[in-house]
Amino acid sequence: MSTRYMKKVYGTDLIPKLNELEDSSDTEAPIIRDVKPKNFNAFNLLNCNGSEEDEEPVDNLNDNDDEDVNEGKDQDEEEMKPKKKKRHRKARNQNSQRSTDRTDKVDSDEDEIERTVREVNKLLGEPVPSTSQESNDDSKSFVLRSKEEILTVQHRNLNPFNELKRIFGSKTVQAEENKQRGRRRTGHLKKTWLISPRESWFPIAKADLSMSIDRSMDLQGGSGIQYFVYEHGVSYRQAQMKFIQAVESLDHENIISMVNQHPYHVDALIQLSELCKLSEDLATAARLVERALYTLECAFHPLFNITTANCRLDYRKQQNRALFITLFKHLTFVSGRACYRTSLELCKFLLSLDPEDDPLAVVLMLDFYALRAREYEWLIKFCNLWESSRNLTQLPNIAYSLALAHFRLGEQEVANELLQSALLMYPGVLMSLLDKCSIQPDSRVQGHAFFNITAATTTPPSLEKLQDLYVTRSFHIWKEAEILPWLEHGAQSVLDRVDAKDEAAKFYQMKRKERYQGKIPKNILRHLILSDLKGVTIAAMEDQQAPSNSGPILSHDPLPPLNSINIYSNPRTSRRRTNDTSNIFSAFFTSLFTDVGGNMQGLNGFMAGDEPGDE
User: Fold this and answer.
1) pLDDT (tens digit, 9 = 90+) per residue, 522-535?
2) Domain annotation covers residue 377
3) What count of Cα atoms within 13 Å lies in the side-chain half-sphere of residue 152?
4) What Å distances lie between residue 437 and 47, 473, 501, CA to CA?
5) Which long-range contacts does 50-53 make (Cβ < 8 Å, 24+ apart)?
6) pLDDT mean over 26-37
7) Which terminal CB of the chain, N or C, has fewer other CB atoms within 10 Å?
């Protein structure tokens, strides 16, 4: 046997003598026990050639000892490595096979579920919900393909407490948030996004208000737009009839009793909120509006998604108008707490309910909240997408706000051009804006006829109302230090163009005279009534003959459309006439207003000079 395998067997560099191996086994044992044997593969002994290795001389042991040991180690390592690699490779193959099996199983389950959902939707005629893959693809590419995509809403921005935490810190807002939400909400089990129920509210299990798909609206396939309609149950209809009687009684105590008996009757909550607002109890008024909105949200259809901007409500239907009115009032209270980003999201949701007709003229305030929330890029994209269908730049608020948005983004040349165009088209805004900001204009601007006499004589009364609305709502934006020098430079540039007999000045003057003729559209009147701004007045038009179906102006449903689809009759109350030209809400003590209805032309036709008509 060779010395190489002798060292592997005995584990030592010394070879025992033959007589010691034969005569005494005691010397053999200590050598084996004291020295730790090396690891080797004993089956390699079967492959050795004993005759050749036995003849190896002993004298060559010291010369080849290290070489033999290294060769043995290398051979053992080479024999062990492939086995380890094979073992790891086999384990990885098994794990990948298991993961593939699990993925195939999950995919098969998802395919089965999606197939079942499609079959049910095909039977019921309901739209197929979009898959997560489609939503991910849409979120990755922000290239807007339609006007509706710009109106998508983000859930996290619908809660005003999230915005207050960013402004004042979480510790300051936590106490108020816990007070509103409450630690225990017995009966409030449904997840809501717009309003979180308060601890003191009653359970809403028996509101008897629901929402269903409105199949009366004919839509083209593939548009993704779906119409919904609110439905009143038997008990809710009975409560609505009691509410109409309470309004006819002209006694606000009956409204309070109505809310006590039916704490989740939407119209009664809106009406009582208006009474609290007149008595300067704004906190109670805001809570009543929140409860009304919570009632409407709990009745949402499972397919009514507030974030997709593809869900519509027909404003002509009487039962749908409560959501429009309540959302408008709620975002007004939210903006009063400086939560402008939340107000912007609510504006987008409100506009998405009926973007074409815009029954509450949301475009008159959407730009203000976008600027206050510093969403300049969003405002520019919105104006670019909706300009072709809505002529947004024909509104003074959009013209000035769009220029300001470009200025905030550092696009100086575009901002200067847009500001000059706005000043040429709506010169009456400048002096009112400077007066509201308590800024004394320079002698040239103050003495020039273009911003004074010419602006007053060439501005129609309806356009003047829009300008007053914009100045009253947005003058705070123009009071900042870096804005006033830019505005002054724009005014001087416009006067230079006017003195140089620029053709653009004449063009805008003729354009201003031809458009904005006729009566104010109903959606703008609704906006003015619901906004209740002190600087904007609504004069009673006693010389106009109101249509027979218009009825009195109610705070829970101001100025319904002429083609309204009613399920309840309007309160049969005698209409009062007054010569008061102050804000219409100052004369309001009950639920009735002086009727300023009539045949109103739509907002688009109003700006384009079309014939008067309804919305």
Assistant:
1) 999 999 999 989 87
2) no
3) 12
4) 104, 12, 30
5) 50/1, 50/2, 53/1, 53/2, 53/4, 53/5
6) 46
7) N
Counting the structural domains of the chain, the total is 1
Residue 115 maps to a domain: yes
Residue 228 forms beta bridges with which residues?
A: 213, 313
Nearest to 418 by CA among 331, 487, 517: 487
Write b or e for each residue in 17-44: b if 16 or more Cβ atoms lie within 10 A of its Cβ, otherwise e.
eeeeeeeeeeeeeeeeeeeeeeebeeee
Cα 546 versus chain centre, distance? 39
Write the DSSP assignment of 117-135 as a string of letters. HHHHHHHHTPPPPPPHHHH
**Judging by DSSP bridges, how do beta strands 311-313 and 226-232 pair with one another?**
parallel
442-475 as b/e, with b when 16 or more CB fall inside 10 Å? eeebeebebbbebbeebbeebbbbbbbbbbebbb
Evaluate whether 467 touches 432 at the Cβ level (below 8 Å).
yes
**Angle of helix 234-248 versus helix 266-278 axis, rounded to 10:** 30
* Residue 80 belongs to some domain of the structure: yes
Residues with Cβ within 8 Å of residue 457, at least 6 apart in sequence: none
Residue 475 has pLDDT above 90, yes or no: yes
- d(CA 128, CA 107) in angstroms, rounded, equals 19
Which domain range does residue 18 map to?
1-124
pLDDT of residue 590: 34
For every residue of 286-323, DSSP letters joined together read: HHHHHHHHHHHHHT--TT--TTSS-EEE-TTBGGGHHH
Residue 211 host element (H or E): strand 209-213
Closest CA to 539 of 557, 523, 514, 519: 519
Q: In what order do the strands lie in the sheet with 311-313?
A: 209-213, 226-232, 311-313
Instruction: Return the bridge partners of 311, or none.
Output: 226
The SS3 of residue 210 is: strand
Is residue 102 classed as helix, strand or coil in its secondary structure? helix
Contact 411, 481 (CB under 8 A): no
Mean pLDDT of the chain: 75
Look at residue 171 in the predicted model and tell me its pLDDT.
63
**Range 500-521 average pLDDT:** 88
Q: Which amino acid is at 139?
A: S
Q: Which SS3 state, helix, strand or coil, does residue 27 take?
A: coil
Dihedrals phi, psi of 415, to nearest 5 degrees: -65, -40
What SS3 class is residue 191?
coil
* Residue 209 to residue 541: CA distance in whole angstroms: 37
In a domain, 48, yes or no: yes
**Model confidence at 10: pLDDT above 70:** no
220 falls in which pLDDT band (50, 70, 90)?
low
The structure's pTM equals 0.70
CA distance 422 to 61: 105
> Does residue 18 carry a pLDDT above 70?
no
Which has more confidence, 371 or 187? 371
